[in-house]
Amino acid sequence: MLLRIVHSFREGVAGPAADKRLLETQEALEDLKAGRVVEGDEVMRWLESWGTDGEQAAPKQ
Fold this sequence. Notes:
The chain has 61 residues and is mainly alpha-helical. It has three helices and no strands.
């Protein structure tokens, strides 16, 4: 049983999920370096508009 738990933990930390996380992080850093970002205030205004009569479109970079 312990071996199965350790194996599951290692797969979760260092397996395909970790590879995907690394790839997504690298892509995000490339976007940041290229200036492809959306300001946090714009995102918050968009989120706060959800479910209201004045719901806004998602902000663009």
